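seq:
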Amino acid sequence: MSKILGGLEQWGPEDEPLDTDIYDSGDRDEAAAFIAETSGELSKIAQQHGLKMLRHLLDMTQLEAADTLRSKRRLS
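struct:
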């Protein structure tokens, strides 16, 4: 269960989902594609709420995930 500390939720090991198959399935490229897409959507939410630093970090995450996919394709 999450704990509220100073207004922020803190997650601990007991909060891990029981069924972690969705995190363990797929390969590295699928994970990178999912992270790129999800971080892009989260970045839009951060922008709508004026969360500039969070948006920046999410944009960097999206770029890194996309770059991971591009570099893999160049090597193939």
